[in-house]
Design brief:
single chain; mainly alpha; 5 helices
Length: 188
C-alpha cells in the first residue's frame, strides 16, 4: 500500500476528514488566518469568571459557619485528651512511688523530681511527661490531691483532680465556659 492510499484510508476512517485535515493543517501553515489563531487562544470571559466567584461565595457561606462554630468544641476535646494523658502519667507516678504527687508538688512532679513534701524514692529519671502542657486557652492545668469535690457522705470524689478553667479562665461556668476536669470528662 503506497502512501497516498494509506492517507486516503485514514481520511475515510475519520468520516469528515477534509474538515479535520484543514483545521490541523491551518495550525502549522504560515498562512493561518489571524481570526483562527485568536479564536483558538481565547481565555475566560468576564461572565465565566463571575459565575465561578459566585459559586465559591455560596460554598463559603455554607461551609464557614459550620467550621467557625466548632473551634470551641475542638478546644474542649483537646483539653480532655490532654487531661487523659496527664492521668496516665499520674498513674505511672503512683506505680513507681506508691502515692500521687501532693497539691504542693503539683503536676510539676511529673516533669522534674519534687523537692518539697514527700520526696519520691523511685522517681523515674527523665520524668513522666516531657513537659507540662497548657490547656488550649494557654492556661496551666490546675491540680489538687485529693480532690476537693466530695460525695454527699463527705469522702473525696477522687484521689486527685486535674482541671482546665475553660474558655473564660474562671472557676465555674456554663456551656463553653464550664470547667473541664478529670471527674467530668464523659459529660458533654
Amino acid at each position: 500500500m503506497n502512501g497516498k492510499k494509506r492517507f486516503m484510508g485514514t481520511r475515510m476512517m475519520w468520516g469528515n476528514g477534509q474538515r479535520l485535515l484543514s483545521s490541523f493543517a491551518s495550525r502549522f501553515t504560515p498562512h493561518a488566518s489571524r481570526h483562527t489563531v485568536l479564536r483558538n487562544a481565547r481565555g475566560f470571559t468576564f461572565i465565566e469568571i463571575m459565575v465561578v466567584v459566585a459559586i465559591l461565595a455560596i460554598l463559603a457561606a455554607l461551609v464557614i459557619p459550620r467550621i467557625m462554630g466548632r473551634t470551641d468544641d475542638a478546644k474542649r476535646t483537646a483539653a480532655k485528651v490532654q487531661i487523659r494523658n496527664i492521668e496516665g502519667a499520674l498513674q505511672l507516678y503512683k506505680l513507681d512511688n506508691g502515692v500521687y504527687p501532693s497539691t504542693e508538688q503539683g503536676l510539676k512532679a511529673l516533669v522534674e523530681k519534687p523537692s518539697v513534701g514527700v520526696i519520691p524514692k523511685k522517681w523515674k529519671i527523665g520524668g513522666y511527661l516531657p513537659k507540662l502542657p497548657e490547656d488550649p486557652w494557654q492556661n496551666p492545668y490546675k491540680y489538687v490531691s485529693p480532690s476537693q469535690k466530695r460525695t454527699p457522705s463527705g469522702t473525696p470524689l477522687g484521689d486527685y483532680e486535674i482541671m482546665s478553667l475553660g474558655t473564660d479562665g474562671e472557676v465555674g461556668g456554663e456551656g463553653i465556659n464550664a470547667d473541664i476536669t478529670n471527674l467530668n470528662l464523659d459529660k458533654d
